[in-house]
């Protein structure tokens, strides 16, 4: 892995120039792209408010938590901002198996000069703290509460990190940044949608300087993104098909909000539906395989009705679209 310790941003660029957002803000940009810098997606659609929140994290060293429903692109949003700043970025997906040793480090046995010796191998947290890296904790509310206290101190601006086993106190690099994403706002699995999430200690929630909410995109933006992901449907006829798909997705979201459905179609599932339609040549079959089969059996009739409303066709009467077949 490349040593980033001595890297610094080389210039500052206007947000208007880089993100086309009307704001008087200049952001630091690295000159070189390191192997840890995410790949930029030219078709990515930025939410202005969330983008400014993330940029505040990069520019002013604020601790930023992005909250939103699944599939809204929370982690991707941070990565795409980092990609345009050439800022090294590392994601840690938190789950019940992530332990304190994984984050902090542990003693390992290595072979040196033909002898086995014990050496401390630092975890991702101290590694990132020493470097100009944007560290993202994915699914922050799914981490074990006892483990998440490991990062309590570094949630404070310029907060130091103590390696007890090594008798070391690590001061964060001037360009270390910390972000997190969550499906909830630390209140646990309130709606039954996100099993495995935890209630986050409110003293820890209080340490996040900025909490931004990312919702699903407007219809036109969502259509454009799906067409960008599946260029086969970039023409007018393809746009009509994608528009009907987005309409179905919006109905599932409205049904979920009204309590009629226990699941909803995220942009990720919507893209999968379009990709599967390209494979099978049949939007109805692809709809079943991409979303309908994930729904509760008692709710599938209502979901099929959504499809009929948007496509003017019963779900059971679909015919393959020959033009879409490869």
UniProtKB/TrEMBL annotation:
All residue ranges annotated as the Cobaltochelatase subunit CobS N-terminal domain in the record: 5-37
Boundaries of every ATPase dynein-related AAA domain copy: 64-188
SUPFAM superfamilies: P-loop containing nucleoside triphosphate hydrolases
InterPro entries to which the protein is assigned, alphabetical: ATPase_dyneun-rel_AAA (IPR011704), CbbQ/NirQ/NorQ/GpvN (IPR050764), CobS_N_dom (IPR025865), P-loop_NTPase (IPR027417)
A GO molecular-function descriptor: ATP hydrolysis activity
Name this polypeptide is given: Cobalamin biosynthesis protein CobS
Protein species of origin: Zobellella denitrificans
């Amino acid at each position: 892995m490349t040593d980033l310790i001595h890297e610094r941003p080389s210039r500052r660029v206007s947000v208007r120039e880089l993100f086309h957002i009307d704001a008087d803000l200049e952001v630091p940009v690295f000159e070189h792209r390191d192997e840890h810098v995410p790949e930029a997606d030219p078709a990515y659609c930025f939410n202005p408010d969330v983008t400014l929140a993330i940029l505040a994290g990069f520019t002013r060293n604020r601790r930023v938590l992005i909250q939103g429903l699944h599939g809204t692109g929370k982690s991707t949003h941070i990565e795409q901002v980092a990609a345009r700043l050439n800022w090294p970025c590392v994601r840690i997906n938190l789950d019940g198996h992530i332990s304190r040793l994984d984050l902090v480090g542990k003693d390992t046995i290595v072979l040196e000069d033909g002898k086995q010796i014990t050496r401390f191998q630092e975890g991702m947290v101290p590694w990132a703290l020493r470097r100009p890296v944007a560290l993202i904790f994915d699914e922050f509310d799914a981490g074990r509460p006892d483990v998440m206290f490991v990062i309590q101190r570094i949630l404070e601006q310029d907060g130091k990190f103590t390696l007890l086993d090594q008798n070391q106190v690590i001061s964060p690099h001037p360009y270390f940044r910390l972000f997190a994403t969550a499906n909830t706002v630390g209140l646990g699995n309130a709606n039954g949608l996100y099993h495995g999430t935890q209630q986050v200690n409110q003293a820890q929630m209080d340490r996040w300087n900025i909490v931004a909410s990312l919702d699903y995109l407007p219809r036109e933006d969502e259509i454009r993104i799906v067409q960008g992901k599946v260029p086969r449907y970039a023409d007018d006829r393809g746009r009509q098909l994608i528009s009907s798909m987005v309409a179905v997705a919006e109905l599932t979201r409205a049904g979920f909000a009204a309590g009629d459905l226990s699941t909803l179609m995220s942009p990720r599932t919507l893209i999968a539906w379009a990709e599967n339609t390209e494979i099978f040549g049949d939007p109805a079959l692809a709809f079943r395989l991409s979303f309908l089969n994930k729904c509760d059996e008692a709710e599938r009739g209502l979901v099929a009705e959504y499809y009929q409303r948007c496509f003017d066709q019963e779900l059971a009467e679909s015919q393959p679209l020959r033009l879409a077949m490869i």
